[in-house]
Design goal:
The structure is a single chain. This protein has two domains: 1-66; 68-97. Helix content is 90%, strand content 0%. The protein contains three helices and no strands. The protein is flat, with a radius of gyration of 21 Å.
């Protein structure tokens, strides 16, 4: 769980730095651009947090089920590749009709 503690600490530092950047740039633009900038910054922040939480949940799943994370990642990648290949084959069959 040290990984999670370190992640939370670094996330706090990241959020603080992002907030300082938002405030610094925020006041140098007209209100319409200020709101857009804040929304874009928040979207970027939430996207980063979502990706990190997804990674943490994968690590927890692997730990709980005694599966090496590298093995899990390879299996997930192969499943996605197979699904894409299957979709391409289905689409090409429909297109040729």
């Amino acid at each position: 769980m040290e990984f999670l503690t370190n992640y939370i600490n670094s996330l706090g530092e990241y959020v603080t730095a992002m907030w300082k950047a938002i405030v610094a740039v925020h006041h140098s633009f007209p209100p319409e651009i200020q709101h857009t900038f804040v929304l874009l910054a928040l979207v970027g922040l939430f996207m980063d947090v979502f990706v990190d939480l997804q990674y943490i949940s994968e690590k927890w799943f692997c730990f709980k089920n005694a599966i090496p994370h590298e093995e899990y990642s390879k299996a997930k990648t192969n499943a996605v590749k197979n699904a894409i290949k299957e979709l391409e084959e289905t689409y090409s069959k429909k297109k040729s009709r």
